[in-house]
Description:
Radius of gyration: 14 Å
Helix content: 25-40%
Distance between the termini: 29 Å
Shape: globular
Structural class: alpha/beta
Number of helices: 5
Largest sheet: 5 strands, mixed
Low-confidence stretches: none
Mean pLDDT: 97
Number of strands: 5
Amino acid sequence: MQQALEQAALAAALGEVPVGAVLRMPDERCFLAHNAPISHHDPSAHAEVRVIREASQKIKNYRLGGGILYVTLEPCLMCAGLMVHARIDTLVYAADDRKTGAVKSLYRVLHDERLNHQVTVIDGILADASSTMIKNFFRRRRR
């Protein structure tokens, strides 16, 4: 999660909402990404989407079974759906997102038994550090 927080700090330095992601695969390969919707002019350029795309390209497979995804903020609907389609095994995230969270806060996409894949979820890891970074980012933007 510390690496994901470092990615979030990179995003903040670029003026992006500070969200970072790390995807660790069973073979120990590790992929890193941060939010970039503003700089990429792409509303889908969330940290989770970017790290899953990179891993899929490098591994040459759209299925990422065995992958553990670390994210600094609870994923949105788009990102949660992507995790199901990519067959991510485990999501570890830091802070809850009460406004758009699709894992626990608003929806429970990753535990919906109607879908053909469920993701194991571990939440609250370094939540205070992630929440503080996000709150400070938006405080600075409002000034």
